[in-house]
Design goal:
MetI-like fold, globular
Length: 301
């Protein structure tokens, strides 16, 4: 009696066909999200770039698409160059301030027990529960001549007059540092938490001091968090609009304020579009450069 073995070729092809069909279905699920992304992000971006090559008739205030580079040539004006330099300087100061103040906090959090870490993370996220505008206005009273900082310095005998921080670039830098601090602490915490205690103990057993361990062990392993935190703070700080408008009192303009001025008050949409397009292009180049440096540092590690 002979037993015939069924052919399995057809059966084996069924899962393959199902897998191919499932892959197509998964791609179809992304279509609505891609549609919204194209409608709400790509289309406005293309419209902004097109506007940057147009001109505004100063008499009729009508937009004309002349495909001219005149709007970009106006970026060489000393007024706008000084604004760009001021924006970069304030953003850099806020980023460095967040890194210097946030690193010890993140390192302390990373060495705590998991339960206490959750409490600390919650305390870091608590400021986001309040309105961004309200928190910014609160700094006017904090940094004012009759605020708690001024009163504390007077009681300590460090100052005898006014604090002098009202509506100054220093007030803007302090406000941005305080506002963006959580965006620096959280990436640093994620990177530092991955540093095992056994590695720090091994460095100590080999005779490394705390400073040397921090410099040779902790900082190289924390580079991904440092890069991520600096990007999360530096990019929005460079184009900040609300904080300079409130804490600067309109006296200290940053690049975001200049762009908003062109759209809201001046009505020069083509030049405002050129400013915004140039700003995004510069940030894109900077992001690519930082990403390559980050990848190179991770490979070395």
């Amino acid at each position: 009696m002979s037993v015939t073995t069924p052919r399995l070729s057809g059966l084996r092809s069924v899962p393959a066909r199902r897998k191919a069909g499932g892959g197509a279905s998964r791609h179809l699920l992304a279509v609505p999200a891609l549609g919204w992304w194209a409608l709400l992000f790509i289309a406005p971006l293309i419209l902004l770039i097109i506007y940057s090559f147009g001109q505004l008739d100063i008499i009729t205030f009508q937009f004309k698409l002349d495909w001219t580079l005149e709007n970009y040539s106006r970026l060489g004006n000393s007024l706008y160059l000084s604004t760009i330099g001021r924006s970069l300087l304030l953003a850099l100061s806020a980023t460095v301030g967040c890194l210097v103040l946030g690193f010890p906090v993140a390192y302390f959090m990373s060495r705590q027990a998991p339960g206490f870490q959750r409490i600390l993370i919650l305390s870091i996220l608590l400021p986001f529960w309040a309105s961004f505008v309200i928190r910014t206005y609160a700094w006017i009273d904090v940094l004012g001549d009759h605020g708690p900082i001024a009163d504390l310095l007077r009681s300590a005998g460090l100052i005898h007059g006014n604090l002098g921080l009202d509506y100054t670039p220093a007030a803007i830098a302090i406000g941005m540092t305080a506002t963006y601090m959580p965006l620096m602490i959280l990436p640093l915490f994620v990177a530092l938490e991955r540093v095992p205690d056994s590695l720090l103990q091994a460095a100590s057993d080999l005779g490394a001091s705390n400073a040397r361990t921090m410099r040779r062990v902790v900082l190289p392993l924390a580079k991904p968090g440092i890069y991520a935190g600096c990007l999360l703070v530096g990019i929005p700080a460079t184009g900040e609009y609300v904080i300079p408008a409130i804490l600067g009192g309109g006296k200290t303009l940053m690049f975001g304020n200049v762009i908003g001025e062109q759209f809201q008050n001046t009505g020069d949409y083509p030049f405002g579009a050129a400013l915004a397009t140039s700003f995004m292009a510069a940030l894109t180049v900077f992001l690519v450069f930082v990403r390559r440096r980050q990848v190179a540092s991770e490979v070395q590690i």
